[in-house]
Predict the 3D structure of the following.
Amino acid sequence: MLDERDEIIQRAREKYIDTGLTRNVTEALRLYLANDASPDEQIPLYITTPEIRRMREILKQIRPRCDDCDGELQMQTNALDRDGKKYPTAWICKKCGMIYYSDKSLSEWLKELNHEDREQKLRAADESDGADVPA
């Protein structure tokens, strides 16, 4: 079953790729959003590229862990729970499949993880200064 985002991408493919107007899915999606999509359809697809890039960079350094199995968590945006309630984000465990739904946006997670990443780097820098010298 396709989720809302996949359905929008599929409609963009049908209108712009299958008809031969473009062969690039990104371009097809851009055209669909600009010409055919309602404002409600645009919401699940609207995340700025710099936010995505920065999130990927941060997650390479510091990645939340699952409370159940200590596996790495993967970010999902516009997540639906079993009851159909939509959350801005969710963390999904790659190992056991546990899902942690969140009301935080990608931007809010980015700020929080960026702060944790900076603190972790500062602690590592402090630890690498060498042995304490007696006064």
User: Anything to note?
Assistant: The two ends are 68 Å apart (CA to CA). The helical segments are 4-17, 25-35, 39-42, 49-61, 106-127.
